[in-house]
Structure formats: C-alpha cells, structure tokens
Amino acid sequence: MDSFSYRDNALHAENIAVDAIAEKFGTPCYVYSREALEQSFRAYQDALADWPHLVCYAVKANSNLAVLDVLARLGAGFDIVSVGELERVVAAGGDPAKIVFSGVAKTPAEMARALELGIHCFNVESAAELDVLNRVAGNMNLLAPVSIRVNPDVDARTHPYISTGLRENKFGLGVDEAIALYRRAAQLPHLEIRGLDCHIGSQLTELSPFIDALRHLLVLIDRLEAEGIIIRHLDLGGGLGVRYRDEQPPAIADYIGAIRAELGTRQLPLVFEPGRSIAANAGLLLTRVEYVKQTPEHNFALVDAGMNDMIRPALYQAWLDIQPTRRQEEGINAHWDIVGPVCETGDFLGKNRPLTLADGTLLAMFGAGAYGFSMSSNYNSRPRAAEIMVDGDQMHLVRRRESISDLLHLEQTLPG
Ligand code: LLP
C-alpha cells in the first residue's frame, strides 16, 4: 500500500489527512509514515531472510529518535558516523552490538565510547586511524573489531557531491593500500579483523556499479585469504537510489537478488548500510504558501519552508515533487518557482512547476524523509521545523518545533 495517497482529493499520510497535521502542529513540518519505514526496512530483511546478514540503517539520513525506534523494533542495526549518532541509537533502544561505525575522522573519545558499548565493527578509513584505534582499545584492554573501507574505484554515476567510490575521493583506501593495512591490522595486538567495507555513493539508480564494486571486493577477499587474513563479513554500504521524479532505481529485492546471484554459493555474511532507500519516501515536508508574487520574469510562490529546512535542491540541484495537499485547489494556474524566506537566491524548493496556487495553499514536498530534517539548520535564525510520525490513524509529535528561546539558550552576551 502507498502510505501517502490522495483520498477524496485530500492527501493522506496513512489514515490521516495531512491538512489536519498542519492545522494541529503548524508549518513547516516533516511528516513520516511508520508503515512506509517498516515496509522498506522489511524489503531488505525479507530479501536476505535465508542469508546471514545485518541491515544497518544509515542514521544520517534521518536520525529522529522515533525513526530509530521504529527500525530498532524490527531488529535493525545502525550505521553511525559520530558519537552523537551513537547516543541517539542507544537512546532509541538500538542494540550496540549491531552498530557499524563509519566516517573518516573518528576521534579517540568517539572510539572509546563505541568500544565501551561493544559495537559490531569499526569501518576504518586510514592507517593513522587504525593505529589510534589500536591504542585506544589497548588502553581499555579490549579488542576492537575492524573492517577496512576499500575504494574499488568504480564510477557510481551519481551527483559528484554524493559519489564516494572513486580514487580521487577522501573516502576509503585503494586496493593495494587496503591490503597493506590489513597486514598491519593483523600485527596489531588490540585489533580483530572482522570484515571488508565499501560504500561507493548515494542515489545510485543502476545495479552495474554495485556489481562492479562487488567483483573487485571478492578478488580482494581471495587475495587476503591467501595470506591467511580471513574476512568474516562483507559490508556493501548504502547507496541504493529512490524514485524522486522519473528515475528507475532497482527495487530493493532486485538489488539484493543481484548481489546474491553474484555471490553464488559463497555464503559470506552481508552487511548493508541503507539510508535513503529506507527513509526518503517515508517522509513529506509540509509548507504553506505565504504569498504569491508574479513578476514579468517569474511567478514566485513564497513558502514558509526554506533552504534551512530542506537544502537538497540548493545543494545538489535535487528535484523533489511538490504538490498541493488538496486537489482542485482554487488559485492561479501558472509555472511557479517555489522559494523560501531565506535571504539567498539559492533558497528554492522547486523551479518552474506547473501548479494552481494561491496565498495559503498547503504544499507537500514528497521524498523528503531522507536528508531533509537531518541536514536542516538555524540559518537566518529560523527555528527548526516540527516532526510528526503517523501510525495508522494516530499522529505523534516526535520533535516539537524549536522556539525562539531554543535558538538563544546556548549563547550569552559579553560580561559587564
Ligand atoms: N554508508 C556510508 C558510509 C555513507 O557515507 C552513506 C551516505 C550511507 C551509508 C547511506 O547512503 P544512502 O543509502 O542513504 O545512499 N546528503 C546527500 C546524501 C549523502 C550521503 C552520504 N553518505 C543527499 O541529500 O543526497
């Protein structure tokens, strides 16, 4: 079932008309569907049911505690990149033993906290990091479980800002460097080699880069095994794309199926780190048109959500669908630039959209569940939006709207 759908000309999130959510909690606000989150997570679990696996949701995509809670209850693991994300997972009831820790610049304090909680694996990205991790684990009298992040040098054919698997990126290590680092890891007394890790980019809409990467990694695993270095799990990262407009990304089941087919009889335990493919289409951003402004060059719809609430269009020229929450809305039929209140020309949500709009029209931006709220900021001293989770015919405020005093409370003026 589609968790967001028009019924009687009104957009619903599960069984709730989104207009009622805007009425109750104000705009801008993010609306998530528990059902949609569960469906996408289960698609991974089901496709891997008879294969040893761990699906670690990438917390950065949407780190609201309620989102983490919903996934933790389904047995999710979590991919984290900071101690902040680590503490969120713990606060939401996630199991530390199912956490993988990615990121290029983990601090010793972050490593120590993750070791204390007993995470599943550190995805190590450099020789310097490996040495620090060995030292931190030694000080705690513990063994740190490690994978090395390998850069298989495949072109993910996605936006350059979210492509991470090329040699020129700051992420991971080339194959030869990775082998050298595994040799070193095998010598260090406070490390335990667990797996091999890679993540080649985000919003991938084709299978071939994933399969290319996998082939490179399998060759590497064999080379390591020939030296007596045994890889016990293969972490293929995240990256599966979603449909925002007319993209045709593979279904989750087909993506997993293709990987399993490539592995054949080799029952290597698999780890995945999906973010977008779990959360993107489980969320909407609701925003109201404050004013329409028609100039000789453009028709502007000035809305109450800005680039501080949703930066993807400004940062990546991302296209997300925007529609009125009620069909047959009265108003002016035109091609609209939907722009926010922030004082930047780059502050737009969508351009040249054929829509019927008027002052007060409530709009929904679809596909906003991933990298929406989690990338939001207080730029222009704008309090961040409320977040609401719908569950059947219930709506729950899962993050209240920030207040002006929230904005000010960490700061102070000079003494005297
Ligand atoms: N694992 C690692 C190591 C990652 O760096 C990422 C995303 C993921 C997993 C999850 O990837 P996903 O399944 O969501 O594609 N802010 C950008 C996306 C940045 C992705 C960064 N890394 C956007 O809004 O498009």
Task: Summarize the structure in short.
The protein has helices spanning 18-25, 34-47, 65-73, 83-91, 108-117, 127-139, 175-187, 208-226, 252-263, 276-279, 312-316, 404-408, and strands spanning 4-7, 10-13, 16-17, 29-33, 53-58, 77-80, 99-101, 121-124, 144-149, 191-197, 233-235, 270-272, 283-294, 299-303, 322-324, 332-339, 348-357, 362-365, 386-391, 394-399.
Give the CATH H-level superfamily of the largest domain: Alanine racemase
Largest sheet: 9 strands, mixed
Average predicted confidence as pLDDT? 96
Radius of gyration, whole Å: 23 Å
SS summary, helix count: 12
CATH top level label of the largest domain: Alpha Beta
Counting helices, strands and paired strands, the structural category is alpha/beta
